[in-house]
Amino acid sequence: MSEQAQAAAPPSGLGASFDFIPERRRRSGRLLVAAASLGLAGAIVFQFLHATGRIPYGFSNWQPLIYVYIAWGVALGAGQVLMRGEDGHRALFVLPAVLFTLALVVFPTLFGFYIAMSDWNLSSLTGQKFNGLDNFWQALADPFYRNALANMVLYVLAVLVEYVVAFALALLLNAQIRARKFFRVVFLLPLMLSPVAVSWMVGKSLMENRYGPIASFARWLGWDNPAFFTSPWIAKLSIMAMDAWTFIPFMMIMLLAGLQAMPRDVVEAAKVDGATPWQGFWQVTFPLMLPVSVTAIVLRIIFKLKLADIIITVTLGGPGGATDSVSSFIYREYRDRSNVGYGTMLAMIYLVLIVVFVTLLLKLAKRFVRSVT
Amino acid sequence: MKVAIYNQLVRAGATRREVLRGAASVAALAATSGMGLGALTRSAAAQADLRAQILQIPGVGKGSPTDADWQKVGELCLAGTKSNVQQGEFAGVELTFMGLNNQNLHNFLFRGFLKPWEAYTGAKINWIDLAQADYNARLQQSIATGTVDFDVIEMGAPFEGDVCGKGLASEMPDWVKQLIDMDDYVTYLKEPVGTWDGKTYRISIDGDCHTFAYRKDYYENAEFAAAWKDGGGEGEWAPPKTWAQVQAHSKFLKGKKDPLTGLDAHGFLDPLKGWGGFGFYFLEDRAAPYAKHPDDKAWLFDADTMKPRVNNPAFVKAIQDVMDIMDTQPADQINADPGTTAFQQFLAGTGGMLTWWGDVGSMARTSDTSVVGDVVGFSILPGADEVYNSKTGAWDKTFNEAPNMAYIGWGVYVMSRVDSDEKRKKAAWSAAAHLGGKDLSLWMAAYPSGFQPYRNSHFDYAEWEQAGYDRAYIEDYLGSNADSYNHPNAAIEPRIPGIFQYYSVAEDELAKIYAGQYKSVQEGADAIAAAWEKITDQIGRDNQVKLYKASLGM
Questions:
Q1: pLDDT tens across B493-534, in order?
Q2: Architecture per CATH, B3-208+409-485
Q3: Cβ separation A235–B515 shorter than 8 A
Q4: Domain B222-258+260-406+493-552 in CATH: superfamily?
Q5: A238 and chain B: CB distance < 8 Å anywhere?
Q6: Which of A32, A154, A310, B388 has the fewest CB atoms within 10 Å, i.e. is most exposed?
Q7: Cα A260 to chain center, whole Å?
Q8: Which CATH number applies to A136-372?
Q9: ipTM summary value
Q10: Which residues of B touch A210 (CB under 8 A)?
Q11: pLDDT in tens, A280-305
Q12: A319 CA: distance to closest CA in chain B (Å)
């Protein structure tokens, strides 16, 4: 590189350029951003004062603030170009996405925390009242919520069983069996069904106590009065079975893709070295499949943590809360009781728990994969 | 009328020929009375003529009414509007109407009925159609966020606390009261229902109550009767009149075979699973005769303090009654909601007794999946041999009935946002009065509309018979409703804000009680009461007290 070229190269980092930007242009850019920011802040303060009844003038709702925000975003982008030239242009590629995320993810989440810290029952004449951490303490002491969280632990543990079944099915469908393609499609069908449809077809029809085929079969096997949702443990297992039936194909298809992508020469080398199928599976296939397995399990756990539809449709959390999930309990608290503040707090606590749990899970999984492979 | 009921009536023998015969007889009757009674009765005769005429649109058994029929009926029933509105008087006025679109009825009918009204008055109506499942949330959000974007609303009475109690509804002008003949309403729909603090807000277009359905074949069964007598059963083997008898009959039927299906016989079917708050009505059915004292308008809360009565001896007894016959019920009863007990159990031949809204009566004979059509009988809800007196804290040994007016029924309300503009206000009330008019209501009671009869004039069986309906079925179907509606000690829904929150949380606790998670029923009932106190405090106790009293007309 010539000296001249070296002088023109960015001093550090990537993307910085050496556009010459006159100070006047920079200043107008700064002015534009400052004015727009001031406008946005002013509009927020103005509307806040109006909404809290301190000034008589203002918008009838907060909607105009969205337009002010968009205008601020445009001014911010223009300001970047004015102040930073080529770098500003580059920033324009990212800025809309950042502002979009800010508006639709970050702000609603923060606003959600704010709502969670308020006493807000839609039937209350006084409307929303800030109550700090009252909802949090109430949630900790709420037997229904604690029961739902405990149930979630069991539901999540059931994922391991689902994984074993899914892996077995994936191995089966990866083997040279007749009508393999047909079976792959058939095994995927439950995943294509809506959980609500599954609830009606399986939970409320096939498992119906008097006429349901599964109940009749159970009766034939010698179970006097087969009721799948009456005793707490059988009800839990029934819900787990229905949910597993719907989602095992999801894990199975991921594992099948992993098996098909696995290098065949390694498996064949193991065979040549005299490994039995059992050894081949545990020493070669399983370790090689671990990254896919971890992904499948983590995604399935995330799905599982949202379990609600089957429960709401079939048991409504019963008998006596035995099958309640956090989501189905929040659904009742929020929809049936219009308890917006408390319902949001329950959801926020759950969100934090999920984030912490999934982060730990990923870390542990990473460590586990590294130690095995 | 509910669609299913209409279908049943058509199937019950209202053939085309009978319909025409009915039409002719109604016309003849109307003509005769018109001629015979002279000028003074001409107006009444004209009304009778009109009622007979609209009952022939499209004619019982001639297929489902269409938009053209609704418009025709709306046009014929415009006399009330024309009596106090000049043609084109509301030109330029636009109103927004929010209502349901269930079964393509409700708003669909209203559109047709109001089209001639729009043409005559010059007003225009914009429509917000909502599915039942979206309705509560949409209304609650509108109320809570102060974004009432409608002028007229179809609404259930339980929401009156939320709407009227917050001053969101417009008070009914006197001319509307006269126009819709409110004196014709069945007793329970008269004050205090539809009123707040002495002001009237509601135009009723529907009625609701729970009635008692039982299997006649159980009580006509000689083997059962003999076994009952041999077993020392108290009294005759006959349909129960009290909950104590329901309990005894349910225990007696355990282990017997159903005479119709040959499967296990069961007694009363309790829905033990929640139903979005609606399940609590079914515990109320049992508790009301114990808890609703004839001398006390309040029965769910103490009127002065909003202290819940759900854990008083009356409710505890009702819950205990449920627990006492749980072992007589089908195996998975703990997972049966009211929908299951009615449509998958009782109508399918499982269970001997049930409480429900009018749908069961109609579906019993119309639904393809029903097997009990010919063996079902109806009465008002069972009573009790004693009633708890909350004021004295003692049981009064006297027979007591308290039919449960569960949900009360739909009404049309005008929102207060029209009050600032007299023209809009008159237009909104005129539209609402048109929908709640006496003659139009007869058509809605007689044809598929989604609404039940709710006026005394709807129980004129001769009018139905003359129009071509089967008298026996009409009497059976309407009789139990009429007896409940006009009962002097009817248990009326407390129309306070958030009433379904109370019901919903009670369902959660009841599920725990039924699952045996509390040491005693009393402990479980106390948990419901504690949860209710929390809701009352959250919504605002002073205001709830005020509104509860207002809803009871105290």
A1: 888 888 889 999 999 999 999 999 999 999 999 999 999 999
A2: 3-Layer(aba) Sandwich (3.40)
A3: no
A4: Periplasmic binding protein-like II (3.40.190.10)
A5: no
A6: A154
A7: 27
A8: 1.10.3720.10
A9: 0.83
A10: 263, 330, 350
A11: 999 899 999 999 999 999 999 999 99
A12: 6
